[in-house]
Amino acid sequence: MSTPVPRQDWPLYEVFIRSRAGLEHKHVGSVHAADARMALEHARDVYTRRMEGVSIWVVPAVQIVASDPAEADALFEPARDKVYRHPTFYAIPDEVKNL
Amino acid sequence: MYTQALDSHGKEPVPAPTEPAAAHFQARIDADEKIEPKDWMPDAYRHTLVRQISQHAHSEIVGMLPEGNWITRAPSLRRKAVLIAKVQDEGGHGMYLYGAAETLGVERAELIEQLLAGTAKYSSIFNYPTLTWADVGAIGWLVDGAAIMNQIPICRCSYGPYARAMVRICKEESFHQRQGFEIMLTLARGSAAQQAMAQDALDRWWWPSLMMFGPSDADSKHTAQSMRWKIKRFSNDELRQKFVDITVPQAQFLGLTIPDPALRWNEGAQHFETGPIDWREFQAVLQGNGPCNRERLAARRAAHEAGQWVREAAAAHADKARRRAA
User: At A59, which helix (H) or strand (E)?
Assistant: First the structure.
């Protein structure tokens, strides 16, 4: 053997599974793998042993850009006072049908 | 398969939530909110979870060994296929749990180092040998049964990734327990020799299964804090009692005798009372002096070392492919 490789993990991939056609892919967990193909195979073995899916996405975890919980207020607060975006904001007399 | 009352192994002291962030954190927990990986959390909460989840993961991985011992000797193709599927599930459970632990900012390689170095704990139950085929039945029935009892409350744990991993695990454990009971039932309805084998397995696995729930409440170091954090929902003794109450009638159905002369039904309390647990045995196993501690770690180390070249080769291949694509 040539130079020893230091003990470190293979890259982390996040796993998303479509449980059946018609539904969206949903995050289920993560796997380590040397490359994308191995990540798919590991995801198959770890997350679909009981027919849990018909399609798998694996995404390198480092590629995911996530919002910061500390900024949650700034991000989501502006929607809070815009209740007029919901249908229940509008008072319609009971006798009016199909609205 | 399962975790022990892992709160009993910790060392770090737990600070009172005095700072405002800690108070806010506790308020979120009290309101039954889930904590997610990027949320602020007290260091002690993080450390407790890393320790508990990684010990739980190690337990799943080491737990493959006692049953794996019988794959080549399973009595039929059906039993063999089932046992392979079960052992594969245990490996999968380990993977879910290492994944959940990693969301807390630790590396999987580091956790595995700790297991192989002998500095991390895993459930004491896996340091007992599987001497006969009936042991495979007893493990599914009793050990997985105890595991389910322990794990179902963790599905509601305050830490989201751990709770979600546990939901997935609990769904799969039910198969484990039922296949184990089916093995016991087949033996119990079999020849005198098979019945004796089933009884012998119960005799050897009963007390270690009760020990899986961890030390009695009076001696459990971290139960109170873990309960405040909603990492733990019931005390060790409560869970142990529930397990005894549902398992004794199952043993009666099998026509087997629980190896506890002091066992009796308490009509007033509506519970079975058991004799005293030999905690010296529990402590000895935890400290590395169980029947198979050294064998289990040696097997894990050998597997890790034997796989080293494969991991290196896969990494080298991936590197080469990336360079060629660049």
Answer: strand A55-60
